[in-house]
Structure formats: structure tokens, C-alpha cells
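Bench log, entry 3. Co-assembly request; chain sequences pasted below exactly as received.
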Amino acid sequence: MIAPRGAAPRRRASDGMSAGRKSDLPSRSPRTPRPNQATLALLAMAVLLSGCNAAGASTVGNAEQGAVYVDRAACGSCHVIPGVALADGQVGPPLSHFGSRMLIAGTLPNSPDDLTFWLRHPQQVRPGTTMPDTGLTEPQARDVAAFLYGLK
Amino acid sequence: MTGLRHPLSWARRHRRSILIFAAGGATLGVTLAAGGAIVSGFGLFPADAFTPHNPIVARIAHWTFVRSVRHHAGDEAPPRFTPEQVEAGFRQYEQDCVMCHGAPGVARAPWVTGMNPGPPYLMGAARRWTPAQMRWIVANGAKMTGMPAWRVSRSDQQIWNLVGFLEAMSHMSAADYARMRASAQASGAAPKSR
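Structure output for the full assembly:
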């Protein structure tokens, strides 16, 4: 069973995608080794195109990796997901501002543990929901949760 | 030039700028083509399915597909689908489609997660596409996606049934789908066409 948990989804302001981290990318301080040009360009592109969710620092999981799983699990065929290419589905609710949502599926408190459980077993939490079990492993679901909490 | 305005006077006055602009454009084009040839020729493009597409590539490829479907599909479609067609389409869907595209409350097969681009869930397909467009996609498939051209192995009638079912599925709950599965099971396994 899923015990409701008190932990709020809101993360500390220092978490993740602070402006400082973003501006690290193009800068070249003398002590860091010169990053390969192509890698740099790709990173810059990834950050630009993913709506800056590529930062990836989180207590739940790796948000950047989570974005990859969101793409592989085809979440975008049913949900609008900011920062994920072609995720424009109109079947389920849009996932914008997910990090600020209070409830998951109108049922569970939006805590990292409950979100991870929901992502793996929506049919257990709400039998008969259209959302299928995603087939994500627990660590993968945590990464996806980290990604979703990046959507403020 | 005197006071008379020659039609080409603008071009004459800005000749230098125009030449520079054209030269810049040509240089850019040649550079891009050469870059593409180098990436492909030296095998640098990640042609594997594990590496996600660059988002720009993904968007361009998808846009190209959508435009192609709209251009080719036409708008010929039956005004309505009979319950028998929807029922037959459901059996076709269970046999040919559900493992890759899922259904309300039904996950895709686990290995499908390894496809790139991945096959979408189709609960919202009837909202994205007209019946004529769905028929065209099912019949003709999609290059480099893993979606086969079903016209090779399925009849026009079977494909239209499927489109009828896709229309119906957009209004279906997971419980509705489970019920259809149960009643299909009760009435015996459908004869399989291979």
C-alpha cells in the first residue's frame, strides 16, 4: 500500500537549475581543462532545447537522465511536457508546473516516493486509469520524478 | 543615374552588399554540406537506437513526416464505422498493434522502450489525424521508424476496420478496453491471418 508521506515536493532553492550552474557552461576558467568544442556545443544545445532542465542535480534522481526515460516511455503521446521534443499529447493532463502540483492523479500527495510509485504502478494506485504501467524500474522512475520536479 | 528611377537602381546601389550576402550564403551552404559529408563519411553519426535524437533532428524529422502525411493522405473516408467494423478492428489491433502502441490501461511490450523513435500510444491518434490520414499511415507505414506498410500483408478492409477502431478507442476507458478483451476471449480466439 502507499502510505501518504508528509514530504513536500518542493525542493530547496539551491537545488538544480540555479542560474549559476547554467552560466558555468560557456565560461572557461583557467583551472578547468578546455572542454571539447563539440561537447560544449551539444551541451549548450541540450540546455537551450530542454528548457534548462538538463541541470540534473536533485535529491530524488538524475533529471537529465529522467528526460531520456520520459522520451523512451512515450509519455509525450498523452501529455504536454515542457522541454521534451514533440511531447504534445492531449489525452492526459499537461505536466507543466508539475514541481508545484499538490496531488498526483488527484489522489496521492505529491511526494518523491509516492510519485516514484505512481510512475511505476498507476494501475495499482488508480485501477482503471487510462495511464498504463510504464515499465520503468525504480531508479528510472526516480530519475523521471527528478525531471518532473524540475518543471516549476 | 539621373533623376529617373530605374527598376534595378536599388540593386545597383547596393551591389556590393548583395554580393557579400550571396557569397556568405554560398559559403554557409558549402560548409554545411561539407560538414554533413564529413560526419556521415567518417561514421560519426550515432545511427544506433540507444542514443536519443538531437532535438532539432527529431523535430525536423517529425515535421517532415506530418507534412508528408497531410500531402499524400487525401480525405476519402467512410462517413461512419459500423460496430462490426470496430469489433473487427479491435481484433486486428490486438493482433498487430497493441504490443508496440499500447491501449487504455495497457502498456506496450517492454522491449518497445528500446525503439527510437518510439511508437506512440494511440489513445489520442484520432485527435491528431483524420480517418483518411490514419488509413494512409497504417497502409503505408513510416520510413526509419519501425512502422511497417500494412498494405503489404493486410487488406483494405482490414485497414479500414482498424481505423474505425482507432476512432472508437479515443472515447474508450481502460475498463471499456478490458471488457472488449474479455468478450473477445469468451467468443473464442479470432482466426489469425498471417
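The longest strand of chain A covers residues 103-104. Strands of chain A lie at 103-104, 108-109.
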